Automatic annotation (TrEMBL):
InterPro entries: MFS (IPR011701), MFS_dom (IPR020846), MFS_trans_sf (IPR036259), MFS_Transporter (IPR051788). This is MFS transporter. GO terms for cellular component: membrane. Its main location: membrane. Gene3D superfamilies: MFS general substrate transporter like domains. GO terms for molecular function: transmembrane transporter activity. The keyword Amino-acid biosynthesis does not apply.
Length: 387
């Protein structure tokens, strides 16, 4: 990494120092969750298909945030991030305390809702900062999510090896979330509500960009939710080796997003989407054909490195191209469409795995990744302002 690129990344982190902590909150919870999937799944006695169906509970929470998050943001203003973070901490113990598939489903609904609220607010804050400073900041912030995700997954794996149960681990996670959330009060940009009502909401642009983000998050979520199980069950790895699967994803996505922060200032967003999804597709095929945990790590790493910048780029396009009065709502809607990838991936992976095995499920992800370049090409043709 050149000195210029490093300075660009450090500058982006400095400009967005408050929302990036919110990204780390979300990464901390989901990294720990991913590393505990095998024990959580066993704890409720669910097979692959049922567990995938239960994870659809997250979608109910996320769908609610699509409409509630902008209102939540407008009502709480500067306090939106700290309050959302504390709400997230309040439900962090849910997956550990659920003793049945139904209770686990409820826990995932609550986790999806609170995670989605915070996610929308923090992305909106970054979008406002991008407009204020006229530069890309999304990749640097999403990279901090990946850093926190990787660290949390590794530490959770070691905690499992040491004999910690899910309640103990999620208890520590909840305390960490509160400590990180409390200082996140941040002034927001005023919104011209008259202009917001007068100008038509850009649904076409939002849906297209949201679909690109959805594909990126779909690929990411397959590794988050199923990599540990793939390593431990398919390849016979230990708990720590299983936890290292999502950790590899987090680390490589952090590298990819930090690199993407610099690359977005030199290359077109379309090029980043095409190259990134191609690399992710190859990585998914490597993971599918893996004969050892090490080979699987290579595949997961390629998936993370490739897909890392695609989601943030999709959100950045929305924030840049819409009118200021629609920015928060547009980013929220695009993010919510994207978040459906986190919901659909675990569920569809569960169904495919239950039918033909995890190897074929990861092979299917390779095909899904290639949808994003097609959407990006259509976006560029449809909107003359698109890069």
């Amino acid at each position: 990494m050149t000195a210029v690129a490093a300075m660009s990344i450090l500058s982006a982190l400095s400009l967005s120092r408050r929302p990036l902590v919110a990204f780390m909150i979300v990464g901390t919870f989901w990294g720990s969750f991913a590393a505990q999937v095998p024990v959580l799944k066993a704890g409720i006695g669910a097979d692959d298909a049922l567990f995938g169906l239960i994870l659809l509970g997250t979608s109910l929470g996320l769908v609610a945030t699509m409409w509630m998050a902008p209102l939540f943001d407008r009502l709480l203003g500067a306090w939106a991030m700290p309050v959302a973070g504390c709400l997230f901490a309040a439900v962090a113990l849910g997956p550990a305390l659920a003793a049945s598939p139904l209770l686990f489903f409820v826990a995932m609904v609550l986790a999806g809702y609170c995670s989605g609220i915070l996610d929308v607010v923090m992305n909106a804050r970054v979008s406002e900062l991008e407009a204020r400073h006229n530069r890309s900041l999304m990749n640097a912030n999403h990279a901090m999510f990946s850093v926190a995700y990787a660290i949390s997954a590794v530490m959770t794996g070691f905690a499992r090896e040491a004999g910690w149960n899910p309640a103990q681990i999620f208890g520590v996670v909840a305390v960490a979330i509160v400590l990180m959330a409390l200082p996140l009060k941040m002034a927001v940009e005023p919104v011209d509500h008259e202009a917001r009502r007068a100008n038509r909401f850009p649904w076409g642009l939002v849906v297209l960009c949201g679909a690109i983000v959805l594909v990126a998050f779909f690929v990411e979520a397959t590794v988050e939710a199923w990599s540990a199980l793939h390593i431990e069950r398919t390849l016979g790895g230990r708990a720590a080796e299983g936890a290292f699967g999502p950790a590899v994803l987090g680390l490589t996505m952090a590298v990819g997003r930090f690199s993407g922060q610099a690359l977005t200032e030199r290359f077109s967003e379309h090029a980043i989407i095409v190259i990134g999804t191609a690399m992710a597709s190859v990585g998914a095929l490597i993971a599918a054909a893996a004969v050892s945990p090490l080979t699987a790590y290579v595949g997961f790493g390629a998936m993370g490195l490739g897909i890392a910048a695609v989601g943030p780029v999709g959100l950045a396009i929305v924030g840049r191209m819409v009118r200021p009065e629609h920015r928060t709502a547009a980013v929220a809607r695009a993010a919510m469409i994207g978040f459906m990838g986190f919901v659909l991936a675990p569920s569809l992976m569960g169904f495919v795995s239950g039918a033909v095995g995890l190897r074929w499920a990861f092979a299917a992800v390779a095909a899904v990744a290639l949808i994003a370049p097609l959407l990006a090409a259509y976006l560029r043709r449809r909107y003359s302002q698109s890069p």
